[in-house]
Amino acid sequence: MALSEQEQRALREIEQSLMADDPTFGASVTDAGFGQGGSLSIRGIAVIVIGLVMLVGGVALSQHSLWFVTLSILGFIVMLAGGVWMLKGKRGPGGGFGSPKKKSAPKPSGGFGGRMEDNFRRRFES
After folding, report:
1. Is residue 79, in this structure, part of any structural domain at all?
2. What residue intervals traverse the membrane (predicted)?
3. Distances (CA, A) of 3 to 8, 16, 34, 91, 97
4. CA distances from 78 to 43, 44, 47, 58, 68 (A)
């Protein structure tokens, strides 16, 4: 579903204010887009599909021999590894959930965020 022109303008304003307020965070969010890791995600999906085929094939053939049960377990492990690989993705030295974050000094609320906060407060005052 396409965005209206007003929504696109608002989205561009938010993006520009983000880049102006915190350029390092804005750059990290821009770099973490889906366009950068397209081949990696396709490879991850391929690994998951291979694991799924191993899992289903092992379950289907497990009536013939118990060795196919190990094929199912290996298929599950391959699927899990593919999912972790896709979620991990390409992250820079400061990326990731467990990385320590620098605390910056609070900025004065003057830009776009300040206007949004003022509008939010005005809604509940009246």
Report:
1. yes
2. 40-60, 66-87
3. 6, 18, 19, 29, 31
4. 12, 10, 7, 13, 15
Give the confidence band of 100 by pLDDT, cuts at 50, 70, 90: very low
pLDDT-based confidence at residue 78 (cuts at 50, 70, 90): very high
> Residue type for 10, please?
A
Domain that holds residue 68: 53-86
43 burial level (CB within 10 Å; 0-12, 13-18, 19+): middle
d(CA 125, CA 52): 55
Q: What is the pLDDT of residue 3?
A: 75
Position 73 in a domain:
yes
Instruction: Indicate whether 59 belongs to any domain.
Output: yes
3-class DSSP assignment, residue 100: coil
For residue 95, the model assigns a pLDDT of 45
DSSP state of 80: H
Number of domains making up the chain: 1
In a domain, 58, yes or no: yes
